[in-house]
Write a structure and sequence with these properties.
Elements: H1 2-26, H2 31-47, E1 54-55, H3 56-59, E2 68-70, E3 75-80, H4 85-97, H5 100-103, E4 106-111, H6 121-128, H7 136-139, E5 140-141, H8 143-150, H9 155-169, E6 177-179, E7 185-187, E8 190-194, E9 197-201, E10 206-210, H10 217-225, H11 231-241, E11 250-253, E12 256-259, E13 280-282, H12 284-288, H13 292-309, E14 315-318, E15 323-326, E16 335-340, E17 344-354, E18 362-377, E19 380-392, H14 402-411, H15 415-435, E20 448-449, E21 454-459, H16 463-466
Parallel strand pairs: 3-4, 4-5
Antiparallel strand pairs: 1-2, 2-3, 6-7, 8-21, 9-19, 9-20, 10-12, 10-13, 11-12, 14-15, 15-18, 16-17, 17-18, 18-19
Length: 487
């Protein structure tokens, strides 16, 4: 039957879209969310009978808590690729704080990927506190709810839905823009894009050994009766008490030490904490494929190994914010780094700003920074590098106004500038690993990176969506554009 054929096609196309979002999100490529909002406005108008639905972010950039809304129906949506309960709570808290629940008594969360199997209604009720009714089984939706709604649509309306899905999602079409029956321009076609994802390689040997607790037996036994301490922190504290810097590239899990170097070697700072007779050499794959816990431990080990090899570049790990940032070289002076990506340029990676009313006192310090995440895709390891900014009050400790400063700074940048940050960070990591070839005694390179991954079948993104008109400010010729911070 025609209707069943259309339903099957809608199912396949939506599944394709979900897969695309998952891949883009895992790689930190967030342009897909911008496309999704414009796409879902059209889709929800047809599927959920919301003719007045509009994109709130078109009217006000970064609209608080909500993305789409129909004033006449009193229904609003938050569109997100994050399925965790914390994201749902954050959206509802923001909406209530802005008083939006009074205007939109029906707030829904649409998950671009897949929602969780269950959510705690009690946790949601603690947030809403009776201000409005939010049912986790009804108001948290994903593509499966769209498909269920499609089954009740008349044939003519279902044909319009499938036509919309084809127009947006079918690959191999020329990159053009068409006008829908409702007058909204739809994006069609595909293009090749470079993602912020690089393949990585690491040593072929992993060392695993039984852990020996450095604390006296009575103290360790007494501690087990209370909340146990982090064993890695215990070892790190003990190493520092011996007057050494802690080697980052090790983890302790299930009373075993895991490291890329032999912890029982005579020159290893981990020697007092392992039973040398239990040291076992295994392949990394033989460790991280056992279960999800060991996979997560291995990802943490990769991050710590990267942390160790970033030392010569004066790139520090900020544990509270979970990011890497460029630190000052000396006396909090402005730090500029030369790099070559087809042309030689200087890039400011650290800069302090003094108070206007007290020129001798620091107002804030701006650092180029980046998040990293590790992904195993089809048996190949990749590292996602997401550039950002970090603000400190003294070169390390977080500035309490950092969120506002970062928000302002990111508003001055477009994706092309962020991509330049990404290329710069990759280039510097490459230069570190190249330098280790000539100075292996003092430089440690455990993680090597390759070229950024290109994704040839990404939906076409018009330039005006990701490369808005430039704002006017002073910049030097032949130098990567950088916004200055107004404080």
């Amino acid at each position: 039957m025609r209707q069943q054929q259309l339903l099957n096609e809608a199912r396949d196309l939506l599944a394709q879209f979900v897969t695309l979002v998952k891949g883009s999100t895992a790689m930190g490529h967030m342009d897909i969310n911008v496309i999704a909002e414009a796409f879902l406005v059209e889709l929800f108008r047809e599927v959920f009978a919301l003719p007045g639905l509009r994109n709130l972010n078109k009217e006000r950039k970064n609209f608080p808590g909500l993305d789409l809304a129909d004033d006449a129906a009193g229904i609003a949506y938050q569109v997100t690729a994050t399925a965790e309960l914390a994201k749902v709570k954050e959206c509802l808290q923001t909406s209530i704080g802005a008083g939006l629940h009074n205007k939109y008594p029906c707030i829904r969360i649409y998950i671009l990927t897949e929602k969780q199997a269950s959510y705690s209604q009690a946790a949601i009720d603690a947030v809403t506190q009776g201000n409005f009714d939010f049912d986790v089984s009804r108001d948290i939706q994903d593509y499966r709810d769209v498909l269920r709604a499609c089954t009740g649509l008349p044939l003519a309306q279902l044909e319009r839905v499938v036509a919309l899905l084809r127009n947006q999602l079918l690959p191999g079409m020329p990159c053009t823009r068409t006008r829908s029956p409702t007058g909204v321009h739809l994006i069609t076609g595909i293009e090749s894009v470079e993602l912020n994802l690089v393949p990585i390689w690491f040593p072929n040997t992993l060392y695993v050994a039984d852990f020996i607790d450095p604390r006296p037996h009575t103290e360790a036994k007494r501690r087990r009766r209370r909340r146990p301490l982090n064993l890695r922190q215990i070892v790190a504290k003990d190493i520092m008490s011996r007057g050494f810097e802690v080697p980052e590239d090790f983890e302790i899990h299930s009373n075993r030490v895991i490291s890329f170097h032999d912890p029982s070697a005579h020159n290893s700072l981990l020697q007092p904490y392992v039973d040398p007779g239990t040291v076992t050499e295994i392949t990394p794959k033989g460790y991280y494929t056992v279960d999800d816990d060991q996979l997560n431990v291995f990802k943490s080990l990769l991050r710590r190994a990267l942390q160790r090899q970033m030392r010569p570049e004066r790139i520090h790990w900020q544990d509270e914010k979970h990011l890497f940032f460029y630190g000052p070289v000396k006396s909090l002076e402005e730090r500029m780094v030369a790099w070559n990506d087809g042309r030689t340029a200087m890039r400011t990676v650290f800069q302090k700003t003094m108070k206007r009313n007290n020129p001798n006192e620091i107002l804030t310090c701006k650092h180029l920074a980046f998040y990293v995440d590790f992904h195993l895709l089809e048996d190949v390891w990749y590292m996602a590098i997401t550039p950002t900014w970090y603000f400190s009050r003294d070169g390390y400790r977080p500035d309490r106004f950092a969120a506002k400063r970062i928000s302002w700074l990111k508003a001055q940048e477009n994706d092309q500038q962020v991509h330049t940050h990404f290329r710069f960070i990759c280039r510097r990591i490459r230069e570190l690993q190249e330098a280790s070839l000539f100075d292996s005694e003092h430089r440690i390179t455990l993680i090597q990176i390759g070229d950024a991954v290109s994704f040839p079948n990404h939906p076409h993104v018009p330039d005006q969506l990701w490369k808005p008109p430039s704002r006017s400010f002073t910049e030097e010729p032949d130098r990567p554009r950088q916004a200055s911070l107004a404080v």
